[in-house]
Design brief:
Elements (H helix, E strand, L loop, with lengths): L7 H15 L11 H5 L7 H6 L6 E7 L13 H18 L6 E11 L7 E11 L3 E10 L5 E12 L11
Helix pairs in contact: 1-4
């Protein structure tokens, strides 16, 4: 079975499936599109969102490995691991923004150490730097079976100010 090299949509669908299966209540997608709403996304007030996160400047997540995540060697595809790490780091960033701020990834680097085997991939994002204009997160992804380190994703996120409202009559 062959899959598209565009793994991020697969990772998102798998993450949504896991959220439903485990009763988890949080996946930060930054904005609610009609497609994401069809997957169950709802807007959450900032205070409620912050209460859902760890207070230790880290965020933990899990992704159940499904057949669509696997490459021809029956290992988790590297793109899936990168997308999973990126989603976790981005969620941690958004949780630490000021009201109205936005973010975008400036840089993302993934180091691979071992094969992703599952049956669940576990990720922990840790804040390395929180500055006036950027944040840097390091997300470590591990196999659930033996807790072996599979990959480390380090990403730099820019903090963007809130958009000014458009003048009346203009879009």
């Amino acid at each position: 079975m062959k899959f598209s090299p565009k793994s991020a949509p697969f990772a998102l669908v798998a993450l949504v499936d896991w959220l439903h299966a485990t009763g988890a209540v949080l996946l930060d997608v930054q904005w609610c599109t009609p497609h994401l709403a069809s997957l169950g996304v709802v807007e959450v007030p900032r205070r409620e969102y912050l209460a859902l996160l760890d207070e230790n400047e880290q965020l933990r997540a899990e992704m159940r490995v499904k057949p669509l995540h696997l490459n021809n060697a029956a290992r988790v595809n590297g793109g899936v691991l990168m997308a999973f790490g990126d989603v976790v780091g981005a969620a941690a960033t958004v949780a630490n923004l000021n009201p109205g701020e936005r973010t975008s990834t400036l840089e993302s680097k993934t180091n691979f150490f071992a094969a992703g085997l599952g049956p669940v991939m576990k990720a922990t994002a840790v804040l390395l730097h929180a500055g006036r204009t950027t944040m840097v997160w390091q997300t470590t992804i591990r196999n659930s079976g033996d807790n072996s380190r599979v990959a480390i994703v380090t990403q730099t996120q820019i903090r963007l100010p809130a958009k000014a409202p458009a003048p009346a009559g203009k879009k």
